[in-house]
Automatic annotation (TrEMBL):
This is Serine-threonine/tyrosine-protein kinase, catalytic domain. It catalyses: L-threonyl-[protein] + ATP = O-phospho-L-threonyl-[protein] + ADP + H(+); L-seryl-[protein] + ATP = O-phospho-L-seryl-[protein] + ADP + H(+). CDD domains: STKc_MAP3K-like. The lineage of its organism: Eukaryota, Viridiplantae, Streptophyta, Embryophyta, Tracheophyta. ATP binds at residue 83. Residues 56-321 form the Protein kinase domain. Belongs to the protein kinase superfamily. InterPro entries: Kinase-like_dom_sf (IPR011009), Prot_kinase_dom (IPR000719), Protein_kinase_ATP_BS (IPR017441), Ser-Thr/Tyr_kinase_cat_dom (IPR001245), Ser/Thr_kinase_AS (IPR008271), Ser_Thr_protein_kinase (IPR050167). GO terms for molecular function: ATP binding; protein serine/threonine kinase activity.
Length: 377
């Protein structure tokens, strides 16, 4: 395999936050042509990826986003999901949306994984359409809301988290940054036992991150490095890497374990402002185990270079999941293949020396914060 209600917190503060956020993000990056005009780079779609529009039947609408609508439909004799993207109203807008469409098609066709929605094909005319497998289950967001205030069973929450992490590991292994990881883009399978990542609309090639827009994703889940306290001029570059997805995953993992909306009581802009300029994060409940709290907080630490990779996240989640049931007596964990060891009483021991070297100071930081909070109470 190749790889809630939102409450305003005061007029002046809210307006200030909006001003800072809107002034601190880049516009979608574009290349400058010889005559000085701005144009999107031209991208093409391999003819083998195109489907025959005559065989497509579009049925009932099942979803809608900023860039298009999703319908249940049929391709030949197969039931599918059909995403129809907006064309735009001006020539510049059409060029930008066509480039976005081509990028999404090329990336979806390139990566295959059991936790990624299967790409079937696309067509350019008369509509820009992406055809994928149809999952009969609802989005993870709708499912969590439907069972709220109840929480997911810990085994289910960790299973979903592992599904997401494996899908993201696959994308990163293929040089793709998703940039919009959130429960709305995750779909449950029919038996509600696994989830798949469904939308690549804002994904980008990692090799061109320095040319990408900072204002991507959804504010509540966005990494703080996507903002800057210094106003960016149009055309300036914003550097970031695939660790923006790790930050978003940390927020999603927190949601899976708490079944609460991150940054409750804040608007989307207030949440982004709090995360980017006040270094605020959702509060981790005391009943969450220290091991899971460490994974979450490692994912959303301020310095992106100190966040774990998805490969490391998978190993840490598996190690913790293993502690929830008796360890196997037939074999011992290989220190070269796992980031954690299990003690005889079934508790997770410290991470391996290789991982401790990277995350050791984080444990000290979290411990110091906990001690400080205890003393202040």
């Amino acid at each position: 395999m190749s790889c809630s209600s939102e409450i305003s917190r005061g007029g002046d503060e809210d307006e200030h936050e909006k001003h800072v956020l809107r002034k601190s993000v880049e516009v979608e990056s574009k290349s400058v042509s010889e005559n000085g005009s701005i144009a999107e780079p031209r991208l093409s779609i391999d003819e083998t990826l195109l489907v025959d529009p005559k065989l497509l039947f579009i049925g009932a609408k099942i979803g809608e986003g900023a860039h298009g609508k999703v319908y249940e439909g049929r391709y030949g004799d197969r039931i599918v999901a059909i995403k129809v993207l907006h064309r735009g109203s001006t020539s510049d807008e059409r060029a930008s949306l066509e480039a976005r469409f081509a990028r999404e098609v090329n990336m979806m066709s390139r990566v295959k994984h059991e936790n990624l929605v299967k790409f079937i094909g696309a067509c350019k005319d008369p509509l820009m359409v992406i055809v994928t497998e149809l999952l009969p289950g609802m989005s993870l967001r709708k499912y969590l809301v439907s069972i709220r205030p109840n929480q997911l069973d810990i085994h289910v929450a960790l299973s979903f988290a592992l599904d997401i992490a494996r899908a993201m590991e696959c994308l990163h292994a293929n040089g793709i940054i998703h940039r919009d990881l959130k429960p709305d883009n995750l779909l449950l399978t029919a038996n509600q036992k696994s989830v798949k990542l469904a939308d690549f609309g804002l994904a980008r090639e990692e090799s061109v991150t320095e040319m990408m827009t900072a204002e991507t994703g959804t504010y509540r889940w966005m990494a703080p490095e996507l903002y800057s306290t210094v106003t960016l001029r149009q055309g300036e570059k914003k550097h970031y890497n695939n660790k923006v997805d790790v930050y978003s995953f940390g927020i999603v993992l927190w949601e899976l374990l708490t079944n609460r909306m991150p940054f409750e009581g804040m608007s989307n802009l207030q949440a982004a402002y709090a995360a980017a300029f006040k270094q605020e994060r959702p509060m981790v409940p005391e009943d969450i185990s220290p091991e899971l709290a460490f994974i979450i907080q490692s994912c959303w630490v301020e310095d992106p270079n100190l966040r774990p990779s998805f490969s490391q996240i998978i190993r840490m989640l598996n190690a913790f999941l293993f502690t929830l049931s008796p360890p196997p007596s037939t074999s011992l964990p290989d220190p070269d293949s796992t980031e954690a060891t299990i003690t005889s009483n079934g508790t997770m021991n410290e991470l391996s020396a290789r991982t401790r070297g990277k995350f050791g100071f984080l444990r000290q930081l979290f411990a110091a914060k906990k001690t400080k909070n205890s003393q202040s109470q």
